[in-house]
Structures are given as C-alpha cells and as structure tokens.
Amino acid sequence: MSSTENGEVYVNDYATIPVPMDKRRSSFLLAMVLVGSIICLSSMYVGASFVGALTLTQVVIACLIGNAILSVLGGLLSYIGTKTGVGVAMLMRQSFGVVGNYILAILTAVVELGWFGYQCGFFGQTIHVMFPNAGVITDPVVAGVWGGFLMMTTAFIGYKGLEMLSNIASPLILLMCIVGCGIAAVNVGGMDAFNQITLETNGTMSLAVGIVSVIGAYAMGAVLQPDLTRYGKKGSHSVIGAVFGFMIANTFVIVAGYFMCTSVGTSDVATGLLGILGTWSLLILILAQWTTNDNNLYYSSLAAVVAMPKWKKKYVVIVFGIIATFAGAMGIVNYFTSWLGLLGTAIPPVAGILIVDYFFVKKKDYHFGAGVKHYFCSTPALISWIAGCTVGFTVTWGIAAINSMVVAAVVHIVLSACLKNDSGKMYFGGLFEESERGELKKVE
Fold this sequence. Notes:
- By secondary structure, the protein is mostly helical.
- The protein has helices at 27-38, 41-49, 56-84, 88-95, 98-130, 140-157, 159-188, 191-195, 207-223, 226-229, 235-264, 269-277, 281-307, 313-329, 337-344, 348-361, 379-394, 400-419, 423-426; strands spanning 3-5, 8-10, 373-378, 427-434, 440-442.
C-alpha cells in the first residue's frame, strides 16, 4: 500500500489519498469487512433488551425496518466511499471545505477513541461476569487490558488486519449464532414452546421504540462506512456489502441475542450465552467485540492522520490504543460517555450534507489528489451543519442522528440551490491545494 513522493515510499493506509484501483478488494472480501464491523456484542444486547417486551415476530419486524433504514444510509455512503476512494473526513473537503475536513477528523478521532476505550472496559467487565472464578485473567481491569491490546493488533496492521480478522470471525460468529439458536430451540421444546414463553423482564415496549433501538445502536457506524468501502472496486459491490451487513448479519445477530436470552429466561447477554453455549460463549464474545472495536480505533487513527497528514498512522494506533485501553479498563472513560455522546451528535449531520452534496449539488463530481483545489468553507454546508446539530441536540422525538441528518440535508440542498450562481456567497476563506501526500497548502 504505497505511493511515492521524491522517491520515498509513503505508507499510511491511504488515509489522505485515494486508494489506487490495484489495491482495491473483491466484493466478497469487502463484504466480510463490512459484516465484521457491523456484527458486535452491542447487537446482542439490543436483542436482549427486547426480551419480555416484544414478541419474536415484532423483533424481526423491528430489525427489518431499522436495518432497512441503516442500509439506505450506509449503502449511499458506502457507494460514495468506493467511487472516490477516500474516507468520510477527506470527503468533507469537497462537500464542506477544508474547515469541515478538520472539524470532522478531530471529532471522529476523539469520539471513536473514547468508544474504543469504553468498549475495552465493557469487554473486561463482561468477561468477569461470565467467568468470575477463572483467576486474574478474568479480573475486569486485566481482561479489559488484554482485550484492548488484542483489538489493537488488527487496527495497527490497518485495513489488511481488519480484513484478515473479518474473513475468519464473521462466518464463525454467524455460525455460532445459528448453532446457539438451534440449541435454544431444542432446549425449550421447539418453536411452539418458545412462543409460549412469557417474561416480564423489561416491561412493555412498542414496535416503534424497537425500531428506534435498532437504528440508534449503529447509526454512527453507518456514517463511517466510507472509511472501509474506499477499498471497494465497484460502488455496487459496496452497496450490496452494506445491505447484506445490515439486513442479514445485523438482523440475525440481534434476533439470535433475543432468542437465546429468551430461552434461558433472562435479559442478560452473558447469562444467556453461557446458558446456551457454555464456555464456547467466550469465543463469540471475543470475536464479536474484536471485529467491531478494532474498527473504532481504526476510524480514530485514520481521522487523526487526515487532520495531521505528517503523522504516521501505525504510531497513532499504538499511542491512541494504549491510552484508551488503560483508560477504559480502569473505568476512567465511563465518566466521559455523556460527553462522547454529545460530541458524537455533531457527526451524523455531515452525512446528510455529504449525500445530497455528492448526488445532487456536485452531481458526483468529486476529485482528490495532487493539484486538486478545495475551498476553505462552503456557506450552505456550514449553516446546514449548525442547523442539523441544533436539531440533534434539542429535539427529543425519534432518533437524534437521523433527525439531524435529514435537517442538514434539506437545508444544504435548499441553500446550495439559492446560492449556486454566486460563488462569492457560496464559499469563503480562499482556496487550498492538495499535495501528493494529501497535505493542504493555501494558494489564494
């Protein structure tokens, strides 16, 4: 993975330049990476949250509707990532301007790093709950540390590392979910007996709330799909991979979490997995968390390098990973989750801006590379982003991420149409030019 500048091999996982076509991946390999990023322990927890509150039919409907919405969002962004060969932060140079490039890069780096640390701590706690008498190895802090270091390895390798892990883990997780559901069905005496199980663990829940839960659990991940699909060969392959990941894999994992937990009579995932799969549940726990949390660190380090192109991504992964792992394992990150959620609310609106800007305003005319010029800031994008953030922060109805995306998209397309014949009002702050390494230099 390299390009050259003055004879020096430049290796940075193509953070600031388009991925060359000869380095792109096949549709199958890309689909496995997308599935690996989507399949996570959190999906099982979403399924477990439905236990005693929704019927199996309602859970399936909630998953299909929620994941259909995620498929549209993730599919559109995946397509853009493949067609341009760059990730979300770089895409902001075209839709938002240079300032948007830095805003999103810094926000993504901070938010995703925070969630990486949080998931390390969560992993350690879950390991301890499942195996409390296994010695120091399952101590919450110790497990959080070794789990974090494990997840760092594939992020350090880069996209190839994500790919290698996903090729093994994704099919294995799905297979274990199938086996787990089969064992659960046998244990309760078949589907008729399963449907007779009545639990009141979580009270009542409407189907609409179930749909919101499915979407909210992975809205941020859908926004960051271009960071992975920039390695795709064809836009259609990326769309198919995203749709398969959400509609098939994510739906199945959520339903599997619900099915296994219901059969055991609990809404606790650790108890449900142990009751069905025994010690084999450790494997699905590690793989499900690993294939997703390494993406959090990957997204964070990639965004940091976009903000600071001279940084070496592998060193960023090491430094970021060590800090976040210990902060998460020791519970320090837990005090900042509300803050991370607040910052994260500012990221989804850029997805709405990006989608309408690429397809309707610029009509797919996005370019990156040496000599390409970018405006400092797009006025419509800035106003749209502020409008989207305002809605995301203040409106409590529905899903904050989706609400902010829709508002930002509508405002952006309206303002762009109004200002399209006046470049003086459409943009401000001068022009910046890209170098071969993707660095920016002001030219006007």
